[in-house]
Every structure is written in C-alpha cells, then in structure tokens.
UniProtKB/TrEMBL annotation:
Organism: Fulmarus glacialis
Pfam families per UniProt: TTL (PF03133)
Protein's name according to its UniProt entry: Tubulin polyglutamylase TTLL11
An example Gene Ontology biological process: microtubule cytoskeleton organization
GO CC entries: ciliary basal body
The entry's keywords: ATP-binding, Ligase, Nucleotide-binding
InterPro entries: TTL/TTLL_fam (IPR004344)
An example molecular function term from Gene Ontology annotations: ATP binding
Amino acid sequence: QFPFGRRLPCDIYWHGVSFHDNDIFSGQVNKFPGMTEMVRKITLSRAVRTMQDLFPLEYNFYPRSWILPEEFPLFVDEVRMMKDSDPSWKPTFIVKPDGGCQGDGIYLIKDPSDIRLTGSIQSRPAVVQEYICKPLLVDKLKFDIRLYVLLKSLEPLEIYIAKDGLSRFCTEPYQEPTLKNLHQVFMHLTNYSLNIHSGNFIHSDNVNTGSKRTFSSILCRLSSRGADVKKLWSDIISLVIKTIIALTPELKVYYQSDIPAGKPGPTCFQILGFDILLMKNLKPMLLEVNANPSMRIEHEQELSPGVFENVPSPVDEEVKVAVIRDTLRLVDPQKKKR
Ligand code: ADP
C-alpha cells in the first residue's frame, strides 16, 4: 500500500476505485481513465441508445430507457402512444437514481404519473426503464447473474469473460408486478445488499444452493432441463462485446486525454462486473456494468445479537479467486517482456 505514491516504478498498479494517478509513466494500471463515468446509469444508457438507434436488432438486449428529468415528457408521450396502439400492454417501469448502487433509491411504478417528480429528482437524475416482468425463475425465485469481464486493452480491443460468475437470488417467491406487490424489494430486486436483510437469506456452504450460487450451477440445472446452454453463452458473449463496443469511443477520448500517445505512460486493464438478467425465454438482458465490482470473499455473520464476524464465503471464493488469478496471468509483465 502506498498512500502517498511511490517513486520506484511498478509493473502493476492496483487502484482501489478508479484511475487517479497521472504520475505513472510505465507498467500497467488496473483501471481505465473515465470508466467510472462511462458506466454510470445515465451515461451507459446514452451510449447503448446511440447504438440502438444505429443497430436496433443488434442492441435489443437493453431495456427501453429514458433519462430523467430531461426526457420525462418524452417518456410520458412514448408510453401513451404505445398504450394507444396496444391497449393490452400493461407495463411496469423501474426508476433508478444515477450513480446509485446496491438497489439504493430504486422503485417500481405502473404509470409515468407515479414518478416522484419532486425536488429530489431534479437534484438526483435517474434512469427509468421498462421492467422485465417475466424473468427466468429458479426455485420460484428471481435471480440475476454477475459476470466478470476483463477489458485487457482498448486498442486493439481485447476482452476476456470469466467462465463462472455469481447468481444472486431474491428471497421472496416471484410474482409478476401488481400494484399490491410493487414495493416488495425481496421479490423484485436481486441485490445481495438488500436480500441479506431478509429473514429468508440463506448463506450456503456450497456453491449450488442458497441465496448466492455459482452461475455454472445454474447452467447445469438449465442444461438438465434441456435448455440450449451453448446458445445462452453465445448470446451472453455477444451482449458483453457489444456493450463494450458502445463504450469504446468515449473511453478512447478519456484515454488519450489522460495518457496521450507518444508520452510515456502506463497501459490499462480493468475487471468489470456485468449484471445480467435472464428472461423466461433465456434471453440475457443487460442491467448494468460495474467499474469497481466487489472482490470480497468473506461475508459477515452475526454470532450473537449485534456481534458480527467475517467468515469465508465459499461461493465468492470459488469465483473471485479465479478471476483475479487469471487476470494476473493475462497481464503478467514477465510474459509481456518475453
Ligand atoms: P443497482 O446499481 O442499484 O444495483 P441495478 O440496475 O443493478 O441497480 O438494479 C437493481 C436490481 O433491480 C437488479 O439487480 C435487478 O434485480 C432489478 N432490475 C433492475 N433493472 C431491471 C429491469 N429493467 N427489469 C427487471 N428487474 C430489474
């Protein structure tokens, strides 16, 4: 740890949150300049939408989204038009504050008029998105997938996707959204940080059961039910690649501004956390990208009321140790020199 920097150059610099040090002249840094900004909810939505306008069929893995408050009138108009053309369409929307994480400030609505357009939305912009009402369920529960992706280089574009990830489960059986259950976060939101507070959360000591499991255990289950797991993987890979392609033009601008070509500087790589939801028909949908995914391999356990201890989490260990190990192998400075 070098809280005040270091004079001698390093092979690899591992920054905690984002790229922040302009005094690095060689080696590799584990963050790209501008990545944190690019994956914020609003910026990501904008970048994907630009591509949706150009290639609507290729970019149909991201729910229809509007940016608040500026696109509120557009949101109202488009929803009205869609309802007029299909009166049987009974949508639900999810409102997510920009820059929020861990489910913070998220709520579901049935109609644009339900948006809390008070002073707070002006000061806290958000994305409102079509809610995916028919997710794939396992054990009657909604879950999402966290996949780890290594962006090893922007030019040439080099992307590696970890073969295993995490599946994070809700803790209340899923029902399609109704006015009655819209507020039930344990049914609709898969965030670990929320569901951990449910009495139903199961910390499991293996990777196939409980509220957090490996993605590979889900794939095994799906494959035994006869699902086309190969096609699912190829859809996921193409979702990841297309998302990164949508981000690259602006990432290159950030890169050139912080590390101009011709000047001595480091190269960058970054582990990204992709949050993906599978629809009932197995189509993967992108929820969000995390620039600083948690690499914790422990969780807190309450030993007695109010007394907590960190204990190992086998499922996090199984997935995350492999991600870090393979990342270090891929960026190995010795290999680079050879
Ligand atoms: P945060 O950064 O706060 O975790 P997310 O965009 O990941 O925000 O959303 C939180 C959770 O809400 C997701 O993990 C998922 O369970 C649910 N969710 C988000 N967007 C949608 C959507 N469009 N349709 C259905 N569920 C969604």
